[in-house]
Design goal:
Largest sheet of chain A: 9 strands, mixed
Oligomer: homodimer
Distance between the termini of chain A: 48 Å
Strand content of chain A: 15-25%
CATH class of the largest domain in chain A: Alpha Beta
Chain lengths: ~425, ~425
Amino acid sequence: MGLFLKGCDWVITQNHDREVLRNSSISIDDNGTIRDMGITQGSRSDEVIDCRGKVLIPGLINTHTHLSMTLFRGYADDLELQQWLEKKIWPLEKRLTGEMCYYGALLGAMEMTRTGTTCFVDMYFHMADVARATGEAGLRSILSYGMIDPPTQEGKERERMSSLKLLQHIRAMKSPRISFALGPHSPYTCSEETLLWCRKQADKENVLVNIHIAETRGEQAKFERDKKSREINYLDKIGFLSDRVLAAHSVWLTKSEVKLYGKLGVRVAHCPVSNMKLAGGSVAPLPEMWEEGVPVGLGTDGPASNNSLDMFDTMKFCALAHKSHRWDPTVASAQRVLDMATIDGARAIGKEKEIGSIEKGKQADLVLLDLKEPNMMPLHGKETVVSDLVYSASGYNVSTTIVDGKVLMKDRKYLRLDPAKIEEGVSASVRRLMF
Amino acid sequence: MGLFLKGCDWVITQNHDREVLRNSSISIDDNGTIRDMGITQGSRSDEVIDCRGKVLIPGLINTHTHLSMTLFRGYADDLELQQWLEKKIWPLEKRLTGEMCYYGALLGAMEMTRTGTTCFVDMYFHMADVARATGEAGLRSILSYGMIDPPTQEGKERERMSSLKLLQHIRAMKSPRISFALGPHSPYTCSEETLLWCRKQADKENVLVNIHIAETRGEQAKFERDKKSREINYLDKIGFLSDRVLAAHSVWLTKSEVKLYGKLGVRVAHCPVSNMKLAGGSVAPLPEMWEEGVPVGLGTDGPASNNSLDMFDTMKFCALAHKSHRWDPTVASAQRVLDMATIDGARAIGKEKEIGSIEKGKQADLVLLDLKEPNMMPLHGKETVVSDLVYSASGYNVSTTIVDGKVLMKDRKYLRLDPAKIEEGVSASVRRLMF
């Protein structure tokens, strides 16, 4: 059975010409691809969704998070980063089980479904459990096991085995929506050997390498002291950087390092909210990245350092952070930022042929927002819709979320997830974690 | 008939000790004051609201906005301030009628009710119509007519007459919720004579003076060029500054100017979102203001320069803007920022004896948020609730809004406002404005 989205007030296609359709319908094949657009009726067997009073947008893409950290949301805020990690987060992370990560990921999946995110890139532990949660939720994802090198050679090999096991696990799931990436945590927590192993495996398996780069001033300074080299120089010199690398953060880059990203095709997951909250200093050089053609997506980062997974919130923070940093209100326009959360995000994770825009033949990852909520009124025209999405919308204006043509939430009701079961599982996990 | 809020999971009192109550009930007198707290049952005639699964907080206080500018929401974003004002906003504002401002204010009131703001300070035109909308909506407000001196003496006197007419109009309404403030727009749009007239009237009528001060770098530079004095020096020299002044923005202050604010008792409405979006440069010296004991509230500013009226959004921006500006994650903690939106906001507008916290004898301006939404889970304890409110909540998590003991929205249904009528009135206003 296909799906017929009938009479959307507006459709923000995010196609090449950034076309915006008025009073338009979309039909979706039962295999989850967009069959037709701008039509008046679907096929007889289609399930019909009434889209009057709604705007349809491509599902948002969160290019960097640690989903199971929902468990730590609000647990330890307003602290110095190292204090937060060493005193609060790391001791708890040691006690995490697969079951806990499963429930944490389900809670995150519920929040993303609720707030219009249909695809995410994750790095954490117990990733087979995160994969199970993602599969049940019906979301699209790229999952990586976060490799942190212990001092021993045996430990390092265990990290690599964990990565390969996750790869095999995900391939065995045979889900068209769940894919694998390598996840060396960072240049300062992984050895040169591990980084190069990841690079080689990524080429062999044709997957991305998800890594944190140049997040804070402190990290950058320590790296230079320890290795007598800047992070980017070091990664370039050892031959790690390539168009397989999805570099989260990338705040502390020089102009020539941004040029190098552009030349090598390095991809970026920009996380403005987390950068501001953890106060690592400065603001990522976004206009420079655009100038060098770097594909930049948006990420919320983990829910312990944001603390929400609402990509609408992240869009507004992104636009305003760059305007205020540059003292220039024309920087990071609403359209440009919506691009980052949709088609540019798809480009940043190598999925631009599949998702990121509403076009015939693409997968139907789609989100409906309610235009009858007061913050979405009035609508002056095409530009206003995009402005409202970035500067005024909340993820809680989302009414319906669709991935691969499957309706995950309709009129704010979850069709796959069981909120009561998730709440119970999360509460039990937190009780076991904290006491 | 009184009101009995039964079994709130959490009550964030914001009283002197910032007490947080667990599984607690509140009873409210029919005159709108809080009768009792922490009790198990109300009086027999009370209307009962089931508050299980909810957190109760004081209604949020928006200390600076221009409500009717909802009509311009999203109409002209990503522009330089002067271009925005001169090319886009001012030509439209000339065409505004009282009817349009009425509907614009109703839309804003609906958004505030929806997102948990119960009191606001407004400055705009056609303020009798804004007062009518506010009265119908049941919100608490301080309303000021925005005085901008024309070149002629006759014009200046007309502005003063408009202010006095609004004062008389509001007093004649005899609403305990609607009060008046003088509203000289700024030191660069009002003459010395007008500013001093406002100061004198404020003393005489025992009201606040609502004014924009030191908002942007450009304004500050131009003022210094024109008057050979910084704004604050000038305002101090002419004897304008006092504890009657509510100074919106106040971004471009030196440390000694902040000290002067503290010494004179000047109040501040801090508007972080608008400051970032319009990119006027820098960040208001909030920690310095706190050190000097300046009462600082939060404001959204007008919905054309934010573009939302959601104070939860403004709280998160406030916390993160100051953390990132100072490269210090401990600055502007969640508790401190919640204070700004509640009890400190009340202090900033001289209403701390009436509202801003949940205490016996205070007016019942109260808001319930739904703890079953995914972004509000899990709850680790008292500190987490406050963290979640500031870093994770959206105004759309609000389920019930109460002002003066009257329920304005219950379970997301408006009890006073008619959304369909507001939408129709706003659409008609926008059509007449734009064509």
